[in-house]
Specification:
Oligomer: heterodimer
Number of helices of chain A: 0
Largest sheet of chain B: 7 strands, mixed
Number of strands of chain B: 11
């Protein structure tokens, strides 16, 4: 089983839709969690950290479920500019962050 | 502005030549840097962890003699792809932790290598 797993998609949604991605991780001792966004042929950029209590930043909501070992990202009112690959990153305490393969989102008019 | 600067952003080379990629931390010291490789439509794969003043730690399956990593100062890590072949063509990205153990990373802009 891979350490961090994501559905690669693509998720194809119309503008204004709500879309959610999940990411599962295998190391129960994992300590910190992040969502990054990567545009084609660019470096990843931090979208948001994921806190135990869940956190929201505008249209984006991230949640952590330790019992089931997954994190989620919810995007409301999708914009065309949200089209990108969303990478889940988990730090298992070894100081080396582990990346999921990413979930591709395509928002169409 | 960028806190990790990587260059060159693009390089095209002939098969058999060596290519050096530099990764610099700006305004902060990076005792550790990570080097990743990403093939089209694939995830970021960790190649090695670069440690200032000591040998790099390579991931399983990554040839240390082919991918030479040097981290001679607290602000510079270099990756040299030696005797490059077309299958080494990829997107190489460096990153440095914001804080040790935090998992949050500053990324370089990436270097796209094409080996002819």
């Amino acid at each position: 089983r891979k350490e961090v797993e994501q559905d690669p998609g693509p998720f194809n949604v119309p503008e204004g839709a709500t879309v959610a991605f999940n990411c599962t991780y295998s190391n129960s001792a994992s300590q910190s969690f992040f969502w990054y966004r990567q545009d084609c042929r660019k470096e990843p950029k931090l979208l948001m950290s994921v806190y135990s209590s869940g956190n929201e930043d505008g249209r984006f909501t991230a949640q952590l479920n330790r019992a089931s070992q997954y994190i989620s990202l919810l995007i409301r009112d999708s914009k065309l500019s949200d089209s990108a690959t969303y990478l889940c990153v988990v730090n298992g305490g070894s100081y080396i962050p582990t990346f999921g393969r990413g979930t591709s989102l395509i928002v169409h008019p | 502005g960028a806190v990790v600067s990587q260059h060159p952003s693009r390089v095209i080379c002939k098969s058999g030549t060596s290519v050096k990629i530099e990764c610099r931390s700006l305004d902060f010291q990076a005792t550790t840097m990570f080097w990743y490789r990403q093939f089209p439509k694939q995830s970021l794969m960790l190649m090695a962890t670069s440690n200032e003043g000591s040998k790099a730690t390579y991931e399983q399956g990554v040839e240390k003699d082919k991918f030479l990593i040097n981290h001679a100062s607290l602000t510079l890590s270099t990756l040299t792809v030696t005797s490059a072949h077309p299958e080494d063509s990829s997107f190489y990205i460096c990153s440095a932790p914001v804080m040790r153990g935090s998992g949050e990373l500053f990324f370089g802009e990436g270097s796209r290598l094409t080996v002819l």
